[in-house]
Amino acid sequence: MNEQHPLQSFIDLVTFDQELVTLETEVKKLEHEVADAKGKFFQIEQSLEQAKQRVYDARKEVDHKELEMKELEAQRSATKERLENVKNAKEYQAVKSEAEKLKTQQSQLDEVLLGVWQKFEAAQKEQEVLAHDAEKKLAEQKDIQEKKQEKILEIKKVLEERSRARAEREKRVPADWLERYAMMRSRVTDPVVPILQNSCSACFWSVSNQDMLTLKRGALLQCKGCYRFLYIPKESAEQEKQV
Ligand SMILES: [Zn+2]
Predict the structure, then answer these.
(1) What is the distance in A from the centroid of ligand 1 to the CA of 150?
(2) Is residue 10 a part of any domain in this protein?
(3) Degrees, nearest 5: CA angle 219-192-222
(4) How far is the CA of 2 from the centre of ligand 1 (A)?
(5) 107 and 182 in one domain?
(6) 109 and 212: one domain?
(7) What is the residue range of 216's domain?
(8) In total, how many domains does the chain have?
(9) Are residues 104 and 87 in the same domain?
(10) What protein residues have CB closer than 5 angstroms to ion ligand 1?
């Protein structure tokens, strides 16, 4: 078996790394989706909590108005008693008009009570409906979270295996190339690009004939425009041979 040319090993390493990037991007996407599912889960829980609070508040208002009503009733029956024991016509008139006033107040409070009871029942119904849907929705979000989390673990395992395989590939590439590549890689996501129509396919800087010859000899060349590493894609190299 003949030894692979360093430039080809280098391009292989780059291709390998690009696959790694694809996997890393997939992990990021999944992590984002997990966070999204967690957010939705929280939202459902929150709206349940709010509905519960509305029921509680409405109930409190009902109790408050019911108490007011009880007090009015007590006042009315006290007035009735007083009416039976009045000593003169003047006193009778006074107690009578007080009784009338209480009666009006009571009928007004009756209206209010009806309203708060309706509000309470509506809040209860809303809570029931929400709780019924929420169970299913919460389970759904939990399921999404778990499945995506599993997938993340799977990919991370593959990434670990791959990083071991990468170390093997690195051995076939000259150390100073690796160093320059690492530097470029920290700056751009595509540190190595093919030459298309005699120009850098990233920044379109045109490659001189002399540089094309250098590349064809298998040297490593950086673009003078963007400093990315350049290579001649296999297909175009073969095409040139055929011409
Ligand atoms: Zn360039």
Answers:
(1) 40
(2) no
(3) 45
(4) 32
(5) no
(6) no
(7) 175-242
(8) 2
(9) yes
(10) 200, 202-203, 205, 223, 225-226
From 170, 201, 234, the end of a domain falls on 170
Region of residue 173 (left: phi > 0; alpha: psi -120 to 50; beta: else) = beta
Digit-coded pLDDT (tens) for 39-58: 999 999 999 999 999 999 99
Range 71-81 average pLDDT: 94
Among 45-54, 80-89, 175-184, the range of highest mean pLDDT:
45-54
- Note the pTM of the prediction, 2 decimals: 0.65
Residues 137 and 31 reside in one and the same domain: yes
Spatial distance between the Cα atoms of 102 and 114, rounded to a whole number of angstroms: 18
Rounded distance from Cα 210 to ligand 1 centre (Å): 16
From 126, 147, 170, the end of a domain falls on: 170
Looking at residue 232, the DSSP 8-state letter turns out to be -
d(CA 128, CA 155): 41
Q: For the segment 185-232, what is each residue's pLDDT rounded down to a tens digit?
A: 888 888 888 899 999 999 999 999 999 998 888 788 899 999 899 988
* Ligand 1 centroid to residue 205 C-alpha, Å: 5
